[in-house]
Structures are given as structure tokens and as C-alpha cells.
Write a structure and sequence with these properties.
Length: 251
């Protein structure tokens, strides 16, 4: 692509209403002002970016007009995705025309394991199940994301079976992303010693899941989400918009 990404991930703010053990978000960027966010969307469109993912932190904690920003991006012909923990989505979110696809986290099929990784009053798994049920009923496109750590690696096969069953009959799951734990950020840095999975073990888990007979949806191995051939990250710091580099990808 001559160094130009097809997908732009815009980190609207670092703040979040959860305390995940593996969180890679750094406190080195700021909440992007709404005017700069709209201008960035226009710049991305001019660069030829086809898909924008609005994330954070938690995008629904952003003080700007999130859905207005989504409408603006869609008016330019871009596919709009929101990556959210699902806690503060608006009522009827699954029917919003402003959003083409939702990126929803699920760390384990079993609630106790998921909730031990994603800390939120001990009940985040039930929230995610409600959100995923709503999206399935509405036939809305969804990407499921999972961070592979020592805490959930043994459950990935069970989660694969759950994802297959969830997608069956509707095929509305666009993809399932398996991210390798990175020892970065406010959660990952302090928990690196106990959560890091050896690279070969992570690779083996991903290969085993991808080799499941008739596996659907498509499974993507994301060994380092910051190094991709098609994705670039954007954020706001020091009064200006900055971006990451396109590196070596995986699949």
C-alpha cells in the first residue's frame, strides 16, 4: 500500500472505566478535542483510509460527540467501527446506523476467568454477553477480540467453540482477533511477569484454533497490534495529532 494504511485506529482518550490486568494503554496521550477529531477524520479520508476504528481508553467516555464523529466519517464513505468495553453504550446501540461494526472484548467463555482479567465490579462478562446477544439479534457486524495471557490460554479452545456457536446461523461475526499479551501500559507493564505467554506457546494456540475444521469466523493472530501492514494508530499529545508507524504484520 506504499506505506498508507487502509485501517486507522483513533485513540480518542486514554481514560477508561475499567482496570484490566493486561491493559496496554499508556498515559502519554490526551483526549483529542472534538474539532481536531473531525479534522483528523477528513485527513484520513484524503489519505485513502477506508476504515476507521474509534477507541481509547473507552470511546464512550470521550467528551466529544462520538456518534456525530461516526456520522461524519460515514458521510465520507468510510467504514466506521467502535472498540468498546460495552459498559456505557447507549440504549439500542445495536441499531445505530452511525456504526458499521462493533469491536467487543471477550477473554474467556467462562465468567470467572473473564472477570478476573477485566476488572469491573465483578460482572463484566454478563455485560458482554448482553451486548453480544443484542448485536446478534440485530444482525449487526461484530469483531471479537481476545488477549491471550497465562490466565486464559488454557481456555482458548473452549472460547473458540463458544465463538463458533455464537456465529452459527447468522455469520455476523466479521473476525476473531487473538492478541498476544504485551508487557506495556498501565496494566501490562506491572503484570508482565505473571501474564506473559512464551511466543511459541501463543503461536501454537493460534495455529490450533485456526486449524479447527470448518472454523468460522476468520481468526487473526495479532502478535503485536502496533506492528501491522494495514493499520496505523493515531492519538493526540502535546497539542497535536500524532501517529504510529506501519510495521511488519501477521495474520
Amino acid at each position: 500500500m506504499s506505506g498508507v494504511e487502509s485501517v486507522a485506529v483513533v485513540m480518542l482518550l486514554p481514560a477508561c472505566n475499567m482496570h484490566c490486568t493486561f491493559c496496554v494503554t499508556e498515559e502519554v496521550f490526551e483526549s483529542i478535542p472534538e474539532r481536531q477529531a473531525w479534522h483528523l477524520v477528513e485527513q484520513l479520508h484524503q489519505r485513502g483510509v477506508k476504515t476507521i476504528v474509534l477507541g481509547g481508553g473507552e470511546p464512550f467516555a470521550w467528551e466529544g460527540d462520538l456518534l456525530g464523529l461516526c456520522r461524519h466519517a460515514r458521510s465520507l464513505g468510510m467504514t466506521v467501527q467502535i472498540g468498546t468495553n460495552g459498559i456505557d453504550v447507549p440504549d439500542g446501540f445495536e441499531h445505530l446506523d452511525e456504526v458499521d461494526r462493533w469491536v467487543i472484548p471477550l477473554e474467556a467463555a467462562e465468567a470467572t476467568m473473564h472477570d478476573a482479567m477485566r476488572l469491573y465490579r465483578g460482572q463484566h462478562h454478563s455485560i458482554i454477553m448482553d451486548r453480544l446477544d443484542a448485536l446478534k439479534s440485530a444482525g449487526k457486524s461484530v469483531t471479537i477480540s481476545t488477549v491471550v495471557t497465562t490466565a486464559n490460554m488454557a481456555d482458548i479452545d473452549n472460547l473458540a467453540a463458544w465463538v463458533e456457536a455464537y456465529d452459527r446461523g447468522t455469520e455476523h461475526v466479521h473476525a476473531w482477533h487473538l492478541y498476544q499479551f504485551l508487557p506495556l501500559g498501565r496494566g501490562g507493564a506491572v503484570n508482565a511477569a505473571r501474564l506473559t505467554v512464551p511466543a511459541e506457546d501463543y503461536k501454537a494456540v493460534c495455529q490450533r484454533v485456526k486449524a479447527r475444521p470448518g472454523m468460522r469466523p476468520i481468526v487473526f493472530k495479532r502478535a503485536n497490534m502496533y506492528r501491522s501492514q494495514v493499520v496505523r494508530f493515531w492519538w493526540y499529545a502535546g497539542g497535536k495529532v500524532e501517529c504510529g508507524s506501519v510495521g511488519n504484520g501477521d495474520s
